[in-house]
Each structure stands twice: as C-alpha cells, then as structure tokens.
Write a structure and sequence with these properties.
The chain is mostly helical. The protein has two domains: 46 residues; 94 residues, no CATH class. Helix content is 74%, strand content 0%. It has eight helices and no strands. The chain starts with 8 loop residues before the first helix and ends in an 8-residue tail after the last helix.
C-alpha cells in the first residue's frame, strides 16, 4: 500500500500563496490590503476559486454591518460628538482613573443594550483612545473592561446581540 503524499499543482499554488501572504504580512513591505487583493486576484486568475465566488464574502450581512458601522463612526468623529463624549466622561470621572474606567464601561455597556455590540465597540474605541491619550492610562486598561461591559450590556436586550 502506497501512502506517499503527492502534491498537485493546485496544492502547490495554494501553499505558495499562503507562504507569500504570511511573509508579506510578517515583514509589512506592502500594505496588508494590497497583499490581500493580490492574493484574491491571483486565486481568481489561476482558477482556484470560481469568479462568481471570488468576491461573494464581501456581500455578506456581517461585512456590510462592519462597513456601515465604520462609516457611522467616522461621521460621528468628524462632527465632534465622540470628543464631547470623551470630555463628558473626563469631567465626571473627576481625575480618578478607577472612576473613569467604571463610568466609560457603564456608558458603553448601557449603549450596547440598544445598539449592536459590533457598532458599540467600533464607536467607543476612538473614545477610549482619546481618554487614554489625555490621562496617560494604558489603552488595554480601559478597553478590556469596556469590552466586557459591552458584551454584558448586549445580553440585556435582544437588540444588542442581534
């Protein structure tokens, strides 16, 4: 019984694309989005993936939700609403880091009970970044409790986790 592994040309091409992708992501000589598009186009041109399936993932509801959330977040950021929220949180924290973490987590958690968790996270990440840059607090010290609060807040209603 012969149990040797034989690699087909398609297998070798996929292996080469995986190695290429990993090396490009590791050394960051080319931007990640460009590398991803090169790999995607290569998969289509070589026939490894059918042309009708090539961009099918971009039309999924989850991808559209993330894109819409990013557009909404950029709009809120440009209006200054996120700066006002960060300022409000800083004023009410009164200089105490523990109060800031608690207050930011509570507000994000309550918001996630009526808005999807993904959207809430995308909206509060710039707020957390502004808060940490103004206070000197480590970003992870604020993001971890906020993300836990967002997850818990999302389970308060059927909307948050939908």
């Amino acid at each position: 019984m012969d149990t040797t592994l034989t690699l087909t040309n398609d297998m070798l091409l996929v292996l080469g694309l995986v190695v290429f992708t990993m090396v490009m992501f590791l050394f960051e000589r080319i931007r990640g989005d460009v590398v991803s598009l090169v790999v995607l186009v290569t998969l289509g041109l070589t026939g490894l993936v059918a042309p009708e399936d090539l961009f099918g993932g971009f039309s999924s509801g989850a991808v559209m939700n993330v894109i819409a959330t990013m557009i909404l977040g950029a709009g809120l950021d440009r209006t200054g609403a996120l700066n006002r929220l960060a300022g409000w949180l800083l004023r009410h924290a009164k200089g105490l880091e523990s109060r800031l973490v608690l207050l930011a987590s509570a507000v994000a958690g309550l918001n996630s009970s009526v808005v999807q968790n993904t959207a809430t996270t995308a909206l509060y990440m710039p707020v957390a970044s502004r808060l940490t840059s103004r206070t000197g607090l480590r970003l992870s010290s604020l993001l971890v409790p906020m993300s836990a609060a967002i997850i818990m807040g999302g389970s308060l209603t059927m909307v948050g986790n939908s």
